[in-house]
Design a protein that fits this description.
Structural class of chain B: alpha/beta
Distance between the termini of chain B: 27 Å
Oligomer: heterodimer
Number of strands of chain B: 17
Structural class of chain A: alpha+beta
Shape of chain B: globular
Number of helices of chain A: 18
Largest sheet of chain A: 9 strands, mixed
Order of helices and strands of chain B: EHEHHHEEEEEHEHHEHEHEEEEEEEHH
Strand content of chain B: 15-25%
Largest interface: A-B, 51 and 57 residues
Chain lengths: 535, 423
């Protein structure tokens, strides 16, 4: 049993939770985050990767639209290597209601978003894959964002300010005395280690699990769990984010991320917040809608499909006065709402506005602690830019392409990985050609104090996430990880797990090039290695 | 457009296509063999798998693959072996004669299967292996030395050691040791490394690092990198320097044993007058008015367009990986003639990647009659002078059955023979 004591405990290691942790730490408030899995294993890494301009919400929810554009501009400034400033387009087809475009354009201007009508012919010259049937097009300030990188950058920054995070640690109980939060009990799900953490304030930022967390305090928070499925193409189909200019619907946004493009998404209520299994039918539906904007969509290679669960806030009927900040996210002060002092829930919302949500939650928490230091997260960069000298050294050991990819991926950690490869030249070899992941990077991930499972290694490095979906690097990574018994004590289990994780995303898109890849994978692991019978 | 007349045109540069071309040429026919690129052999382990496991006890390696195949043919009339196993002995003898003459002898292990180790430390049941992989019975060895190269990221002796010990095939007290060889430290793939080892000086440096680990009676296992064109000399030199033979262990593609087999078969074909056009893709086909026969196949290749007119065609274009079949959502097509493909509209793949039943998509393909002519759902012949062979044939789940090469060999041999006999 470990006994700890902090002013604030934050539950949930997504963008909002880590954003809150950073915000509190920068105000000098002692804070600790507990997360049941790895950071960003939930919704924050399972979405479009779209940094909204707000245009999508301008008509229905002007307040949310305004928040989006403000946060969009802030994130570009504080996290330049998490954001790809692609710009975005809203395009209209003949079957879309022409009146909506007028309403939408004026709503965008009202919200303070710069939109500019552009010539559809010029748009097609830049994006030849787009449909020739586009009648109108508008340029908007949408961007692509790497959610995973944002979350980790939040954590690294928070740690520099003295905050702590416990991953793979599940909240077991919330303790209260005289209607005041006094602490929590938690358990490490991998080791069974027990924690007792005293705190004055507890912030529930558990996303789709927020209802489950509130239930530990005997309270009800209404979260609709809404599954969204997305598909990743192995091509940069468009140069900008492309949205359909009509009331928001399924499958009408394409987001380019470096060499790939993500299309989504669907919307399907689910019971279980962990239900992120994509179905083939959803994929086919997405493709059918996507084809309206990109007619030759079927010619392009799909890498995989994945799904995330959106937490949508729903006011619990007959509840007290929850302080709804906007229609998109809700900040609940449970002292006012339910008479339990020290408990705050932040629910709903979007990735784009995570920093603002964190600010509001941290303001409320600081107020409860009687601390009046202001929020500084909008001004201070998330990390220091990489000195160019390191990039130069990286190129020497990894080659130009691999060095650039690793530098983007690693941010602050890049220098350590380069130094590692300089000291051990054979670690410069690339284990995963698709994502250009070097052995040095894998070894660095293995050495990190936040790495407990193979999944953590994969998420940190993107090993096996590329075109071949692990066909080659799963065996190679076993060769490296087998020296670390805690990751690969049982070789068959290790490989089966690695391959199965990839399979889950490939199985609903088994046709075209990806079926060929699957056949190669079975030729290697079954015909050649006979793994299906391996002990 | 240039045109070319021939007796037989074979499409596909994998094992089935090359064996079909070799057999037809042996029967005195003019043969044109065309293909996109390096065939599936580059992905192969180098062994010839006929049948892996007992039908009665699926846990147990098949002691006699021939016996299992004859049982299978009685039970399952849709399996490609049901159409081609009648030439099993002839095709094996033919294959071994061709390989021997090309300087790459393939060895059988009596009438049974070899059990040869893989880079993962599993044992593969396979019927014929090149000399370099003909590992003696592991039950009899007292010590095994596993050699790895620091430069080679596709082979890890430590992984091999752990799993060989696990699989229960070693006598008790058998010792496993590892020799990590380091050359330049710079990463190399298997093909590059094999090229380097063809230099005697390099080989001597390697042996100097292995020798300290060697004791008399040790079995030496190495990654499959013992030369490409000069594989014979490399093996002989290595054995002379070590004082004992070293055996190659099958690993990740691109695999030298498969490349060597591909090289050997191509050499044989060219020696026997077969015209090989690699780097060619089929652009279109011309059929007669009744759409009963193929008159010509048009190719697009490095030399521009070429029309090939043949009396008979052997389609050995492979499955999805080879490009003989193409899939869209819920749809499978044969890519050259548009022949009907047998497939399930749904349930293409199991939930578990390693499900022992195998994935349905691997068994999709053409249905053929006894003469290897593709037939439609009613059993009617589609094109009289087109025969199919190899992985494009449906009805076999070769990754779990371990019969891909056997099906390619028997159906390729039979298709070449039937095409030469006139269809």
């Amino acid at each position: 049993m470990q006994k700890l004591s902090v002013q604030v405990v934050v539950v949930g290691g997504g963008a909002t939770g880590t954003g809150i942790l950073r915000d509190l730490a920068m105000r000098g408030i002692s804070a600790l985050l507990v997360e049941q899995g790895d950071l960003a294993h939930g919704t924050s890494s399972r979405f479009h990767g779209l940094l909204h301009s707000g245009c999508r919400y301008a008509v229905k929810d002007p307040a949310a639209a305004r928040e989006c554009i403000e946060e969009n501009m802030i994130l570009r400034r504080i996290a330049p290597n998490c954001v790809e400033i692609t710009g975005g387009l809203f395009v209209q087809l003949p079957e879309d209601d022409p009146a909506y475009a007028e309403e939408w354009e004026s709503a965008c201007r009202q919200a303070g978003i710069e939109v500019e009508e552009v010539d559809p012919a010029a748009v097609r010259r830049q994006n030849p894959a787009l449909s020739p049937r586009i009648t109108r097009a508008f340029a908007v300030p949408d961007c692509a964002v790497d959610g995973f990188r944002v979350v980790w950058s939040n954590l690294h920054s928070a740690r520099r300010y003295g905050a702590r995070a416990l991953t793979y640690t599940r909240l077991k109980a919330i303790e209260q005395q005289n209607s005041c939060i006094t602490g929590v009990r938690a358990e490490n799900v991998l080791t069974g280690e027990q924690y007792h953490i005293e705190c004055q304030v507890l912030i529930n930022a558990a996303g789709p699990w927020a209802g489950e967390v509130a239930a530990l305090a005997g309270l009800e928070v209404g979260v609709i769990k809404d599954k969204g499925t997305l598909i990743a193409f192995n091509h940069r189909l468009v140069q900008q984010v492309v949205n359909r200019l009509r009331p928001p619907g399924d499958g009408d946004i394409f987001v380019p991320h470096g060499p790939i493009t993500i299309l989504g998404t669907t919307s399907l209520p689910v019971e279980n917040p962990a239900d992120n299994r994509p179905q083939q039918k959803e994929v086919l539906d997405l493709l059918a809608i996507g084809r309206e904007i990109i007619p030759d969509l079927d010619e392009y290679r799909l890498i995989r499909t994945f799904a995330g669960v959106r937490p949508l806030y729903q006011e619990v009927p007959l509840a007290g006065s929850g302080r709804s900040v906007s229609r998109n996210y809700a900040l609940l002060d449970h002292q006012q709402r339910d008479g339990l002092a020290g408990l705050i829930s932040i629910v709903g919302g979007k990735f784009t506005t995570f920093r603002l949500m964190a600010e509001k939650a941290a303001d409320l928490a600081a107020g409860k602690l009687g601390i009046s230091r202001p929020c500084r997260t909008a001004g201070e960069p998330l990390f220091d830019p990489l000195p160019p000298e390191w990039l130069e050294r990286g190129r020497k050991v990894f080659g130009v392409a691999a060095a650039h990819k690793a530098a983007e991926r690693l941010g602050d950690d890049f220098a350590a990985v380069v130094a590692r490869a300089e000291q051990n030249p054979e670690q410069a070899r690339i284990l995963c050609e698709c994502e250009l992941v070097s052995q040095a990077e894998v070894e660095q991930a293995l050495a990190a104090d936040t790495t407990f499972t193979l999944g953590d290694v994969r998420r940190k490095t993107r090993l096996g996430m590329g075109t071949c979906q692990g066909t080659f690097c799963s065996y190679r990574s076993l060769g490296i990880l087998s020296r670390y018994p805690r990751f690969a004590a049982d070789h068959r289990q290790y490989l089966a797990d690695f391959l199965q994780k990839r399979w889950k995303g490939m199985r609903p898109v088994l046709w075209g090039q990806q079926l060929r890849e699957a056949q190669l994978s079975t030729a290697i692991y079954s015909a050649l290695f006979g793994m299906e019978r391996m002990l | 457009m240039n045109s070319k007349k021939t007796d037989i045109m074979v499409i596909g540069l994998g094992l089935a296509g090359m064996v079909a071309a070799a057999r037809a040429a042996e029967l005195g026919k003019k043969v044109v063999l065309v293909g996109k690129g390096a065939g599936s052999l580059t992905l192969s382990s180098g062994g010839i798998d006929l049948w892996g496991y007992s039908l009665e006890q699926p846990e147990k390696p098949a002691l006699s693959p021939r016996h299992e195949i004859s049982r299978l043919v009685e039970r399952n009339k849709d399996h490609p072996y049901a159409k081609a196993a009648d030439v099993l002995e002839d095709s094996l003898a033919f294959f071994q004669a061709v390989c021997r003459s090309a300087g790459l002898p393939y060895l059988s292990n009596g009438l049974g299967n070899w059990l040869v180790p893989t880079a993962l430390g599993t044992l593969r049941p396979t019927c014929l292996v090149p000399e370099s992989m003909a590992v003696p019975d592991l039950q009899q060895v007292a010590r095994i030395l596993l050699v790895g190269f620091a430069e080679l990221k596709d082979f890890y002796p430590a992984v091999l050691a752990v799993n060989l010990q696990k699989c229960g095939c070693l006598p008790s007290g058998c010792r496993l040791d590892i020799a990590d060889v380091r050359m330049s430290g710079r990463e190399m793939n298997a093909v590059t490394l094999a090229g380097r080892l063809e230099q005697l000086g390099v080989l001597e440096e390697v042996v100097a690092q292995i020798r300290p680990h060697l004791t008399p009676g040790t079995l030496v296992l190495v990654p499959p990198v013992l030369g490409r064109a000069r594989h014979r000399q490399v093996r002989e030199n290595l054995a002379a320097l070590l004082g004992c033979p070293a055996y190659e262990v099958a690993g990740l593609p691109p695999a030298l044993p498969g490349l060597r087999l591909s090289d050997a078969l191509l050499t044989h074909l060219k020696r026997n007058g077969v015209t090989v056009l690699s780097g060619s893709t089929v652009h279109s086909v011309r059929l007669d008015e009744q759409r009963r026969r193929c008159l010509a196949v048009q190719l697009a290749g490095p030399g521009g367009r070429l029309e090939v007119q043949a009396a008979a065609y052997v389609l050995a274009s492979g499955s999805f990986l080879g490009g003989g079949l193409k899939a869209g959502p819920g749809l499978v097509q044969e890519t050259i003639f548009g022949l009907p493909v047998q497939f399930d509209p749904d349930g293409w793949a199991c939930e578990e990647f390693l499900d022992r039943r195998g994935h349905a998509f691997n068994s999709f393909g053409l249905r053929v009659n006894e003469n290897l002519q593709p037939v439609d759902g009613e059993g009617r012949v589609c094109l009289e002078n087109v025969l199919a062979a190899g992985a494009i044939l449906g009805g076999s789940n070769w990754p779990v059955e371990k019969c891909g090469n056997g099906v390619a060999l028997t159906s390729g041999y039979k298709a070449g023979q039937l095409a030469a006999g006139g269809v």
